């Protein structure tokens, strides 16, 4: 029964059967053709039998096994965890152990969350040949994903029958916040190439008095820190190179990412919710803060205060942040800023940089929460990060051709103006803010953090 379930009919066999049916029908008009068609059909039936024997015949690799499961081998290589919002590489390894060339069709049963039915690959492998198929998957939700089997349909050179092999059945893989993006920023920061992903070099407006080293001048450094004696002592055949005094940044400053899990963060963009964009940016920002010797912490909130991870910079802090962000769940209820303020005042006693990831669509929505934001800004350096409506921007960039479009653009201009008005309102009360598109959230947030640190505000 196992072999029968693994046996499938190829298209070539169906076409051949249709041709024989037509030939048998035509033989009624030409009786002398009938014996020839009969002989041809017997030969065809023999070829089908030979094809089945070739596919199910045990190979030398199978030893004493009679099920032939060693005639072909496949393996799916999946990372131990997937990165949310990123293209994750997957590979399927194929090995032909038949003594003849085979054509294969590979159907990978990927998790249902991807809603894809096109993960079908075709390949041709010679005898004892191996081949690797590479493709990518981009998850848009955190959580556990269940992979099914790798189905491999093998056809012999006759191509009349298929034999199905199944490998790698029932594997669970967790989708974490975007650790690939975190690693990218970490690598670029280590090699001073952050400008490649939108990082700006911020001119230092102030510095601590703790001397670190004398190093060559680079564009953006404060000219007031030039060390003229070190410059004069340096002998450079290609010309004098300015030397500057470098000072250490203020370290061990608490940096908290406050993540709003309320209704306003449910809006989707490119498959991800604004909440997932905020979670990915928080992971990157926390890692950058730890690289700068600051202490990073997380606080999540909605109608209730969620989880709080105190700011720290010990070696395992990144893993703690990653696990906390991975396990975040929400019902997207209305946000309670009063509970947020109470929790911050109770648990965060030291003056800290608070990066509040939220969203305001109108000025009136801001005014309802402004008293609590002002109280937070009184005790801490508060940075409010909210989102630009990209769909609205696309509408405003298109020319209006009729009355309805003029009306829609007018309403759109009103909402776009309110977003800018929110920035002015926050600035008026001494609250830092970022208005950004979702795709630029991480770069703009890290830029602002580096700017605040360069100005000595934290």
Automatic annotation (TrEMBL):
Matching InterPro entries: DUF58, vWFA_dom_sf
Q: Which keywords does this chain's UniProt record carry?
A: Membrane, Transmembrane, Transmembrane helix
DUF58 domain segment(s) = 213-383
UniProt keyword Nucleotidyltransferase present: no
Is Transmembrane among the key words of this record?
yes
Q: Kindly list the residue ranges recorded as spanning the membrane.
A: 12-30, 36-56
- In terms of domain of life, where is this protein from? Bacteria
SUPFAM superfamilies linked to this entry: vWA-like (SSF53300)
Output this protein's name.
Answer: DUF58 domain-containing protein
């Amino acid at each position: 029964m196992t072999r029968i379930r693994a046996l499938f009919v190829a298209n070539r066999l169906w076409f051949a059967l249709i041709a024989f049916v037509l030939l048998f029908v035509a033989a009624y008009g030409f009786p002398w053709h009938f014996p020839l068609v009969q002989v041809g059909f017997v030969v065809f039936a023999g070829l089908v039998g030979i094809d089945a024997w070739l596919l199910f015949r045990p190979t030398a690799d199978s030893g004493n096994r009679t099920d032939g499961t060693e005639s072909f081998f496949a393996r799916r290589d999946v990372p131990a965890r997937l990165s949310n919002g990123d293209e994750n590489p997957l590979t399927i390894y194929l090995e032909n152990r038949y003594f003849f060339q085979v054509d294969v069709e590979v159907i990978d049963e990927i998790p249902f969350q991807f809603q894809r039915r096109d993960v079908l690959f075709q390949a041709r492998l010679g005898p004892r040949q191996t081949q690797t198929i590479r493709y990518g998957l981009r998850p848009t939700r955190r959580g556990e994903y269940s992979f099914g089997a790798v189905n491999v349909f093998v056809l012999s050179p006759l191509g009349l029958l298929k034999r199905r092999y199944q490998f790698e059945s029932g594997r669970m893989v967790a989708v974490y916040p975007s650790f690939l993006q975190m690693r990218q920023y970490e690598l670029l920061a280590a090699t001073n190439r952050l400008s490649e992903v939108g990082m700006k070099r911020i001119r230092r407006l102030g510095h601590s008095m703790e001397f670190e080293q004398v190093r060559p001048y680079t564009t953006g450094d404060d000219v007031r820190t030039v060390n003229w004696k070190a410059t004069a002592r340096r002998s450079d055949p290609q010309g004098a190179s300015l030397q500057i005094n470098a000072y250490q940044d203020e370290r061990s400053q608490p940096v908290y990412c406050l993540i709003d899990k309320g209704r306003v963060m449910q809006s989707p963009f490119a498959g991800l919710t604004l909440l997932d964009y905020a979670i990915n940016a928080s992971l990157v920002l926390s890692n950058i803060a730890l690289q700068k010797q600051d202490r990073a912490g997380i606080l999540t909130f909605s109608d209730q205060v969620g989880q709080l991870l105190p700011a720290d910079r010990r070696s395992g802090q990144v893993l703690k942040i990653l696990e906390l962000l991975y396990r975040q769940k929400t019902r997207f209820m209305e946000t309670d800023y009063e509970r947020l303020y109470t929790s911050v005042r109770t648990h965060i006693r030291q003056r800290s940089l608070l990066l509040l990831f939220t969203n305001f669509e109108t000025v009136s929505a801001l005014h309802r929460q402004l008293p609590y934001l002002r109280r937070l800004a009184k005790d801490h350096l508060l940075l409010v990060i909210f989102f630009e409506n990209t769909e609205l921007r696309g509408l405003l960039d298109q020319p209006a051709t009729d009355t309805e479009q003029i009306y829609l653009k007018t309403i759109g201009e009103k909402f776009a103006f309110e977003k800018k008005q929110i920035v002015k309102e926050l600035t008026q009360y001494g609250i830092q803010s970022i208005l950004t598109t979702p795709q630029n959230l991480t770069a703009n947030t890290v830029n602002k953090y580096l700017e605040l640190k360069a100005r000595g505000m934290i």
